[in-house]
Amino acid sequence: MNAPRHTRMANNEIVVGVDGSPASRSALRWAVELAATTGAPVTAVEVGYPVTVAHVTAFTPMPYGTAPPLEQARPSPRLYDLVVAARAGVWGAPEVRRLHVDGDPGAELTRLAESAAMLVIGKTRHSRLAEFVLGSVGAHCLRHARCPVVTVPA
To answer: In terms of pTM, does the model score above 0.90?
Structure first.
């Protein structure tokens, strides 16, 4: 499910960026443990880069930029598995809402967390050169988020 552009999280919600990395798994687990003690709702957000395609079949070409099939717009089975693993063993673990959006990960996470209680992301180690060339989701979130940002190491 793609979140509409007007979607925002509740003001006591914990938004967690999840990409499957060990750091994002730690961030999700940390958020679930916190929510178990505070009662705050948790949303695990998986951000994919938008796919632009130029499909051509034997029958008809699809125009450039056609959206991918609906199956690709839903949260992945991997996200479901990560949420189940994060909730395992946490007494009183809350339900975790799973959300998939397409776009730039840093921009989408900060957009979705505009009115949230906090944004939780994993902290991965990159060289300064890699961060300069590729950018950093964490750096974007720290600079642009309107709520507190918690970075959790792997």
So the answer is: no
